């Protein structure tokens, strides 16, 4: 990771090279009779120095965003010029200080904006449907094949200069090509969001999602409501991509909804589609701008089996069943695993392998249930009765065993309770208000140890065993009956 | 954190602890990397499946073919067992029960 000084120096060099090219291009265009409007060099350099430095340790979502970052930064100095290919068809007005010889003339539509519309039309190959050969043959509008080198982590990249969406083998191997493509289109919205006209408003819209209290843009990070990266330009691109693939799920008028609406407004201003891709779009019909009814019953004829399954026909009963739970999708699963692992490590717990009652155990007898909230609407730790009983049985099996629940509130925005770590002695389903707010890992370790000693005192242990005996006996009887039924099924089979 | 498998059995849904959070994480990462088992990949990606017979068959086949480590095998076997015991279910949802 370069220092900020090195980063800014690199940006300046990048800008100087780009400007030289642009000047040459400008001369050629002027000779050809085109109306040319160049950026003011002083302001352009200032813009190029905007401090969007990636925070230390952050990895980009697509593995290719360092390039996006560079083009994004470099692009800032092109705002308002003839060479601003963001496809902006709104009237920006000139920036203060920029010298315009003639009234601004609208440029043609950006190639990727045109491609984003084309991908919704009948018979047009999309980046998520096309084969490598079809892309290499130039059959997909706006998409070109590019070998980023065997060591490159890049799988897709939008070249603002060439207006091409460049893809590689890594892109073809991804099961999420559609969202990656929409994300790259979303970078056009990002550029618009951070141009001179919109920069302040965008920062204001993002403010409720800022993770820290830093005033610096470069050193700060934001909660991404639609993706992984905490960089502002990636967040805007992710929001656009997510809205193209799914309808809004936020409460109308809430801060999430507001931010999404803002992103869509900018998308409209630069001529991008603002409606969700419909099932028909996925099949390739003329249904270009119709609001998606997203009827999963229509299915799809896509080649990718994953997509085919994702948009399959569902019965009303199936829809109800899925809607009544929060399925652990991959994104959530990865985030939970990471958060749980970090906390477990910090409190010195080890992961008990297999389907054991307690996942994390400190020493021999301190069982810790760590729960991580990501999407939960209710401020409550749920624990099903059987799950609780299994933990209680584990606790009762030895005199030195105790049980503890730690809750990590990693919910975004308004959903978040305002505190991250909560603790409760014992095992069970608890509402957040009855849990103790913990300020630090050291405090958490201290509380666990103190409560462990209290729980294993002979008097408390005896009382706990007596209290739980009835339900445990019932559970054992139920397990026995299950085991017998299983054996019976096996016998019937054989 | 415990991951729970829920089936929409009628009249009342059936739920069972299927693995630890990390156990499910390992299982789903493995499932995503399998080739040719679209329903299993779908379960890993989205956390639910509506084709239970196909899913069960694919877990059996993928475990045979892939020989994953013991933790993954255990989660897969528990899932097969859970799916085998519930006749009238249409959907399987994997959840952390925080709703």
Description:
- Chain A is an alpha+beta fold and 494 residues long.
- Chain A folds into three domains: 4-52 and 59-89 and 107-279, no CATH class; 293-323, no CATH class; 331-478, Trna Endonuclease, Chain: A, domain 1.
- Chain A is 44% helix and 9% strand.
- Chain A has helices spanning 4-31, 41-48, 65-75, 111-118, 132-136, 169-172, 177-193, 199-206, 232-245, 255-269, 279-283, 305-310, 316-323, 330-346, 385-396, 441-455, 458-493; strands at 143-145, 156-159, 164-167, 350-351, 360-362, 366-373, 380-381, 402-409, 421-425, 430-431, 436-438.
- In chain A, strand 2 and strand 3 form a beta hairpin.
- In chain A, helix 7 (177-193) crosses helix 9, helix 7 packs across helix 10 and helix 15 crosses helix 17 (458-493).
- The radius of gyration of chain A is 28 Å and the shape is elongated.
- In chain A, 36% of the residues are buried.
- The model of chain A is unreliable at 34-107 and 279-310 (pLDDT under 50).
- Chain B has 99 residues and is of the alpha+beta class.
- Chain B is built from four helices and four strands, in the order ββααβααβ.
- Chain B has helices spanning 21-33, 38-46, 52-66, 70-84; strands spanning 2-7, 14-20, 48-49, 92-95.
- In chain B, strands 2-1-4-3 form a four-stranded antiparallel β-sheet.
- In chain B, a hairpin with a 6-residue loop joins strand 1 (2-7) and strand 2 (14-20).
């Amino acid at each position: 990771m370069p220092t900020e000084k090195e980063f800014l120096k690199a940006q300046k060099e990048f800008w100087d090279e780009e400007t030289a090219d642009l000047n040459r291009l400008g001369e050629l265009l002027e000779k050809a009779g085109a109306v040319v409007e160049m950026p003011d060099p002083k302001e352009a350099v200032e813009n190029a120095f905007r401090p969007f430095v990636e925070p230390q340790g952050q990895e980009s979502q697509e593995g290719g965003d360092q390039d996006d970052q560079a083009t994004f930064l470099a692009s800032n100095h092109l705002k308002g010029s003839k060479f601003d290919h963001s496809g902006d068809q709104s009237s920006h007005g000139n920036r203060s200080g920029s010298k315009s010889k003639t009234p601004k003339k609208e440029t043609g539509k950006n190639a990727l904006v045109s491609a984003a519309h084309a991908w919704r039309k009948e018979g047009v190959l999309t980046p998520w449907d096309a084969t490598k050969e079809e892309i290499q043959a130039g059959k997909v509008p706006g998409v070109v094949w590019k070998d980023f080198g065997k060591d490159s982590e890049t799988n897709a990249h939008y070249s603002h200069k060439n207006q091409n969406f460049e893809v590689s083998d890594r892109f073809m191997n991804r099961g999420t090509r559609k969202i990656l493509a929409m994300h790259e289109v979303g970078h056009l919205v990002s550029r618009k969001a951070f141009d001179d006209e919109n920069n302040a408003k965008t920062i204001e819209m993002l403010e409720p999602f800022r993770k820290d209290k830093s005033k610096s843009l470069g050193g700060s990070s934001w909660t991404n409501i639609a993706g992984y990266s905490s960089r502002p330009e990636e967040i805007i691109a992710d929001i656009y991509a997510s809205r193209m693939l799914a309808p809004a799920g936020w409460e109308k008028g809430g801060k999430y909804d507001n931010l999404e609406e803002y992103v869509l407004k900018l998308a409209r201003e630069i001529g991008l589609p603002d409606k969700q891709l419909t099932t028909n779009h996925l099949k390739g019909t003329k249904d270009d701008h119709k609001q998606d009814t997203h009827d999963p019953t229509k299915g799809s004829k896509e080649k990718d089996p994953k997509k085919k399954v994702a948009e399959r026909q569902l019965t009303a009963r199936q829809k109800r069943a899925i809607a009544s739970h929060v399925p652990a999708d991959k994104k959530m699963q990865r985030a939970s695993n990471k958060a749980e692992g970090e906390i477990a490590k910090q409190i010195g717990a080890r992961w008990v392998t297999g389907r054991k009652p307690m996942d994390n155990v400190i020493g021999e007898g301190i069982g810790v249930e760590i729960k991580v909230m990501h999407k939960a609407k209710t401020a409550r730790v749920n624990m099903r009765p059987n799950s609780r009983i299994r933990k209680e049985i584990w606790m009762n099996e030895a005199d030195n065993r105790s049980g503890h629940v730690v809750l990590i509130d990693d919910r975004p925005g308004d959903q978040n309770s305002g505190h991250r770590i909560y603790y409760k002695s014992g095992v069970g389903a608890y509402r957040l208000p009855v849990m103790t707010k913990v300020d630090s890992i050291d405090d958490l370790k201290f509380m666990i140890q103190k409560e462990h000693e209290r729980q294993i005192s002979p008097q408390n242990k005896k009382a706990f065993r007596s209290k739980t005996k009835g339900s445990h006996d019932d559970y054992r009887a139920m397990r026995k009956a299950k085991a017998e039924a299983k054996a019976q099924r096996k016998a019937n089979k054989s | 954190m415990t991951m729970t498998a829920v089936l929409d059995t009628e009249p009342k849904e059936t739920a069972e602890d299927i693995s630890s959070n990390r156990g499910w994480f390992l299982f789903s990462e493995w499932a995503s990397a399998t080739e040719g088992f679209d329903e299993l990949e779908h379960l890993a990606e989205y956390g639910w499946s509506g084709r239970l017979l196909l899913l069960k068959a694919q877990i059996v086949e993928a475990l045979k073919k892939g020989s994953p480590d013991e933790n993954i095998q255990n989660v897969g076997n528990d899932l097969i067992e859970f799916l085998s015991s519930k006749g009238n279910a249409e959907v399987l949802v994997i959840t952390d029960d925080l709703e």
